[in-house]
Design a protein that fits this description.
Radius of gyration of chain A: 41 Å
CATH architecture of the largest domain in chain B: 2-Layer Sandwich
Helix content of chain B: 25-40%
Structural class of chain A: alpha+beta
Shape of chain A: elongated
Number of helices of chain B: 11
Number of domains of chain B: 2
CATH superfamily of the largest domain in chain A: Bira Bifunctional Protein, Domain 2
Number of strands of chain A: 43
CATH topology of the largest domain in chain A: BirA Bifunctional Protein, domain 2
CATH topology of the largest domain in chain B: BirA Bifunctional Protein, domain 2
CATH class of the largest domain in chain B: Alpha Beta
CATH architecture of the largest domain in chain A: 2-Layer Sandwich
Number of domains of chain A: 6
Largest sheet of chain A: 7 strands, mixed
Oligomer: heterodimer
CATH superfamily of the largest domain in chain B: Bira Bifunctional Protein, Domain 2
Structural class of chain B: alpha+beta
Strand content of chain B: 15-25%
Number of helices of chain A: 20
Largest sheet of chain B: 8 strands, mixed
Helix content of chain A: 10-25%
Order of helices and strands of chain B: HHHHHEEHEHEEHEEEEHEHH
Shape of chain B: rod-shaped
Distance between the termini of chain B: 81 Å
Distance between the termini of chain A: 93 Å
């Protein structure tokens, strides 16, 4: 909502200056978003006289004018207007001025080789009218002595832009804003001047509101003004319309707009002679069409509130009028409509048709249903004043009587909510100033709510009125207590926090990417899960919720490769989605590593990152989060986006209840499809929701500390076994030979190739054997060696290597 | 007698020469080996006349000790010398680069979420969460924003079905509803998380982060709200004093509602939070609307309290001088490295929020 202080002062008697008003507006909850000095730029438009006109040496249509702008030497202006002639008084815009119509800033420029200092303006360029055929012609009589002066009155015409919250329909008019300011002590709300309207004859156009289901129009007031001469608006009115950032059109249209912005009372003007018989307000029928004032043709649905006549639709009630019965400069007889439409219906229809107008914006927030006559009166008065004509009596059709709402307010609620006290008497004053009627009823107040406040329903709304007018700075701050009754984080949140930092500590940069992604890329990672489409995506490449974090991570990894990085480690922790119901999501930590380790190091031999790097990252993180490494169990069933031979999944234990993580090389076909050129790319996914809380937490006592001081022995074994046999099983078999004595099993060599039969591999292990009870003898050791060999050979079909 | 003296003199002389380890060891053998000169002398001890034996033995032992000490010292010296020479040879250029290491980083949004949690933990808030996909009821209706309410226009909502019943939550406020429906008052929670609006320009991203706050108990009033937020802002920006302004505003789910501005100024191109004469909007808040409490079966005559919503990304930008919101989600390696935090740098209330 835009206002100027001048306009405001038509309703508010105030001593405050503009800055104080701006502060006060903010204090009462009418947030000032900005102050535009738009009319300030009009200050530079100067009344000027053309002294001499010459032809442009290089262009037939252009002329060279010497222009007297009241400052010593005349300036040279190149002008294309046919009406530029010697002695003409016109409006000159110097370099630096901004042309109101197209917002172009003028500069000193060469036009076909001749330098032009500024511009002579047409009325259209100044938004004064639609006249664009030539430059403005000012009357000699009126302006001859004003050469050099500003054409536009130089008032303080700062336009204050206020962001009106959706509850404050009443402040979509200047008077409503003035009322709030007055209540807050910024001045006194002026009484509205009432000029007696001389009403003759009846309003002859018949108006009928059809009885319909959910009829949105409950009141339709109208009056006609016959014998008008529609014209351009007078300057004061144009100025107001321009200050709103709108274009003056004609007196009648400008007046209806003016009344809307002044009183928050939308009106509509019809050309009576274009109405076919009478007006009928009814619900639309599917498929009906009409051409609206925005020059678009709309096809209507069922049950939209329309204003019609015998030939069809005239307009969408409260939203937009139609071209057929619009007023024009030749309109002789006008019908002014002042009606009430239900916010719900306005909103429904305008949303369906995607129409946004000033009237719609107001009606959907709730217009004062008791302002029907006030609006008619104001508009009729102005039309008569500017365009002449005879005003009819008002015709008010309504389907129901409007009653003001009222409620009982307990003044003690104020302190309960705000923490501070306000005297009951002061409360009454504030409420009365806001237009509430109050009546004391013992401790309570009977409060009648003004008809322009559709947002007030209950006691707490009254509290808000009081506290915002008193000022929020009155609320006393209460220091918070430092007491914690519940743990801040639950177990899952702790795990989230822990894994996030644990993975990062392995050298990964944490990324946060959209929860949505490109369906085409998502398909590569969806693995039979449901695709979750967004009905109205922000762009076609962000059209589904992600099934995996990989899709976004890989897109961004590729961008970073494009930036010249090769060795990347990134991860994200966040949701992935498996359905469109709330809760059909899981929390996943997902990471990617590319390129090499120790690239171009003088110390280390560089190598490609591989699956065992990410395996280590995951397992170390799980261990850090408190899970038992020795219980973790790995197998090789993985989703199709991993390399089938170089990927695995991890369970917390051998019972394989829930997959805790996947890891491995990203499938080469995915790299090909996404055109990713990378030396190596490995990734992992850890599923937070599948991680059971570790059995032991830090607060639990540690298990008894057992250690052995007896000598330990290390023995090396090499077994030849099937290539597909998993080393994980081999280690388990050896460990199980004697859980007391076998302290650790290390794999120190894996070999396939010469000397080993095709389809077999050789695994060399180092086994540490130590007893808790005694130093083992050579005999004991030999015995256990034999047991190990026997167990391995019998359970795996392996052969010990000689 | 003279033999001992002779051995002594001769070997003292020899040991004065510049010898290497082998030569010294040879001398050691010559003297103390099985047939060494000193060893031989000891063997003769029995043959010496009884009256002289004592003296002989004493003299011999003196000479033995002297020579032995000398040899030990000599060997030590040679060894030290050799070590020194070896060390000299082994000297390397220690200014060569260390073994390469990589430093991971935590995203500023995650860091700020942890900072926020740490601050609110101190005054008794616990952390709650809710799903990113919400139903229309929790996101709007239960929050006193019925269908066709103009406030819905401010939330450009992403929908997941044609009926517009399923959506991506436009704010973290539905966590209020979930929390209150699942438990009994009092409530004292914060809920950080991802939120979504179909809006994308220089200062808006279709996904962003909010933290919701909710404190419901008997007799919680606007003074508590003011105190809580003042405490939070002061702690978060790690300043002693903060200029703050509560301004009336409107949210359907709070009544009265407020927006909070903090004072700032620009000094040398940098934003200074907490002072100055300019205002910056940082959050919205208010007293939870009685209709909301009724919707979650909490009796508004018995319980009341406040709620607030803060944009996390904005806070991170302000605190850490990040200009571009869009860069948060661009995953540019250079940006993540520059603005990220070391994973060890966990915000705590005893060590401080930030280093």
């Amino acid at each position: 909502m835009k206002i100027t202080t001048n306009w405001l002062k038509e309703h508010l008697d105030t001593k405050l200056n503009e800055n104080q008003i701006i502060d006060k507006l903010t204090d009462v909850g009418l947030e000032v978003e900005g102050v535009e000095n738009q009319p300030g730029s009009l200050d530079s438009f100067i009344i000027a006289k053309i002294l001499k006109v010459e032809k442009h040496p290089d262009a037939d249509r252009l002329r060279l004018c010497d222009v007297d702008i009241g400052k010593g030497d005349p300036v040279k202006v190149v002008c294309g207007a046919p009406n530029a002639k010697e002695g003409l008084l016109t409006i000159y815009a110097p370099p630096g001025a901004v042309v109101p119509k197209n917002q172009m800033k003028l500069a000193v420029s060469k036009i076909r080789g001749v330098t032009s200092y500024g511009m002579l303006c047409s009325e259209s360029e100044l938004n004064l009218s639609n006249e664009s055929d030539g430059i403005t012609e000012l009357s000699l009589e009126k302006y001859n002595k004003k050469i050099g002066e500003n054409y536009f009155p130089k008032k303080s015409l700062n336009v204050i832009d206020i962001s009106i919250t959706p509850n404050r329909a009443d402040c979509l008019g200047v008077r409503g804003i003035a009322r709030d300011l007055a209540a807050a002590g910024a001045g006194i709300l002026k009484n509205q001047k009432k000029k007696k309207l001389d009403k003759k004859n009846k309003q002859k156009v018949s108006v009928k509101i059809e009885k319909e289901k959910d009829q949105a129009c409950t009141v339709f007031g109208s009056c006609s003004i016959r014998g008008v001469k529609n014209t351009e608006s007078p300057e004061w009115l144009k100025e107001k319309i321009i200050s709103l950032g709108q274009k003056p059109i004609s007196a009648i249209v400008d007046i209806t707009n003016y009344v809307m912005f002044d009183l928050n009372r939308p009106l509509h003007a019809y050309d009576v002679d274009k109405i076919d018989k009478g007006i009928i307000v009814r619900n639309s029928r599917k498929g009906e069409t009409f051409e609206a004032l925005d020059n678009k043709k709309y096809k209507l649905d069922d049950e939209m509130c329309v204003i019609t006549d015998a030939s069809g639709i005239l307009g969408l009630g409260g939203i937009i009028g139609g071209t057929r019965t619009g007023t024009a400069l030749d309109t002789k007889n006008v019908l002014i409509e002042s009606a009430y439409f239900s916010p719900r219906s306005i909103r429904k229809s305008s949303k369906k048709l995607n129409i946004d107008t000033d009237a719609k914006f107001r009606f959907e927030r709730g217009i004062d249903p008791l302002s029907i006559e006030q609006g008619l009166e104001r508009a009729a008065n102005l039309i008569q004043e500017i365009c002449g004509g005879t005003v009819s009596e008002f015709d008010i059709q309504k389907t129901e009587d409007v009653k003001k709402k009222s409620l009982k307010f307990n003044p003690s609620l104020f302190k309960k909510i705000t923490g501070f006290n306000v005297d009951k008497k002061e409360m009454i004053t504030i409420l009365n100033n806001l237009g509430f009627e109050t009546k004391e009823d013992k401790e309570l107040l009977n409060v009648t709510i003004p008809s322009w406040r559709p947002d007030i329903f209950q006691e707490v709304d009254v509290v808000e009125e009081l506290v915002r007018i008193k000022g929020y700075e009155k609320i006393k701050m209460i220091e918070p207590e430092k007491v914690r009754k519940k743990p801040t984080l639950n177990l899952k949140q702790k795990l989230f926090h822990f894994l996030q930092r644990s993975i990062a500590s392995k050298g990964y940069l944490e990324a946060i990417t959209w929860s949505f992604t490109d369906s085409k890329i998502n398909q590569l990672f969806i693995e039979g899960n449901k695709e979750v489409k967004i009905i109205n995506p922000i762009s076609s490449d962000l059209d589904v919720l992600r099934s995996s974090i990989f899709s976004n991570l890989i897109i961004h990894l590729n961008k970073n490769l494009g930036r010249g990085f090769k060795d990347l480690s990134v991860f994200e922790i966040g949701p992935t989605f498996s359905g469109s119901q709330p809760g059909e999501q899981q929390t996943v930590v997902s990471g990617l590593r590319s390129g090499k380790l120790d690239r171009q190091s003088w110390l280390e031999k560089e190598r490609l990152v591989d699956i065992f790097d990410v395996k280590s990252d995951i397992i170390k993180s799980l261990v850090e989060a408190g899970f038992d490494k020795d219980k973790l169990y790995v197998d090789d069933e993985t989703p199709s986006y991993y390399h089938p031979g170089k990927s695995g999944r991890i369970f917390l234990n051998k019972s394989k209840e829930k997959v805790v993580a996947f890891f491995g090389d990203i499938h080469p076909s995915i790299l090909k499809k996404l055109d990713i050129k990378v030396e190596a790319l490995v990734g992992f996914e850890i599923f937070l929701d599948n991680l059971k809380q570790p059995k032991k937490s830090l607060k639990d006592q540690k298990t008894q500390y057992k250690y052995s001081d007896f000598q330990k022995s290390e023995r090396d074994f090499a077994f030849v076994l099937d290539k597909n046999f998993k080393v994980q099983e081999l280690i388990e078999i050896i460990s199980n030979v004697d859980k007391e004595l076998v302290r650790s099993v290390k794999v120190f060599d894996v070999y396939e190739g010469a000397n080993i039969t095709e389809g077999k591999k050789s695994i060399a292990l180092n086994v540490t054997i130590q007893s808790l009870e005694k130093t083992l003898t050579e005999d004991d050791l030999n015995k256990i060696n034999q047991l190990i060999i026997l167990a391995v050979e019998s359970k795996t079909g392996a052969k010990i290597r000689a | 007698m003279s033999d001992i003296k002779k051995i002594k003199d001769e070997f003292l002389l020899r040991l004065k020469e510049n010898l290497d380890l082998n030569q010294v060891n040879q001398i050691k053998i010559d003297l103390f080996g099985k047939n060494g000169l000193i060893s031989s002398q000891f063997k003769q001890l029995g043959k010496v006349a009884e009256e002289e034996r004592k003296k002989f033995a004493s003299d011999l032992n003196l000479v033995k000790d002297e020579l032995q000490n000398l040899i030990t010292t000599k060997i030590d010296n040679i060894e030290i010398n050799e070590i020194n020479q070896k060390l000299e040879k082994e000297k390397i250029d220690i200014t060569l680069p260390e073994r390469p290491f990589v430093q991971g980083k935590i995203h500023p949004v995650s860091q700020v979420i942890d900072e926020i949690s740490s601050i609110f933990s101190e005054i008794g808030f616990s952390v709650e969460e809710g799903p990113d996909i919400e139903n229309e009821y929790n996101n709007f209706t239960a929050l006193n924003t019925p269908d066709n309410h103009p406030a819905r226009d401010m939330h450009d909502t992403f929908y997941l079905d044609e009926k517009k019943e399923l959506l991506l939550r436009t704010h973290t406020s539905p966590v209020q509803i979930r929390t209150m429906l699942n438990d009994k008052p009092p409530f004292k929670i914060i809920a950080p998380g991802r939120t979504y609006r179909s809006d994308s320009d220089q200062t808006h991203t279709p996904m962003f982060h909010q933290v919701e706050g909710l404190h419901i108990d008997k007799n919680i009033n606007m003074g508590h709200l003011k105190g809580c937020l003042n405490y939070f802002i002061k702690e978060f920006f790690e300043v002693d004093k903060i200029k703050m302004r509560f301004r009336p505003s409107h949210f359907p789910f709070t009544e009265p509602s407020a927006e909070v501005d903090i004072g700032y100024e620009i000094k040398n191109g940098k934003i200074i939070i907490g002072e100055g004469d300019k205002w910056l909007e940082v959050l919205g808040c208010g007293m939870v609307h009685p209709n909301v409490l009724k919707n979650v079966k909490v009796n508004p005559d018995e319980f009341q309290g406040y709620a607030f919503g803060i944009g996390i990304d904005r806070l991170a930008m302000l605190k850490y001088g990040i200009n571009d919101l869009r860069a948060f989600f661009d995953c540019d390696y250079r940006w993540l490295n520059h603005f990220g935090f070391d994973p060890i740098d966990v915000p705590t209330n005893y060590r401080g929020l930030s280093r």
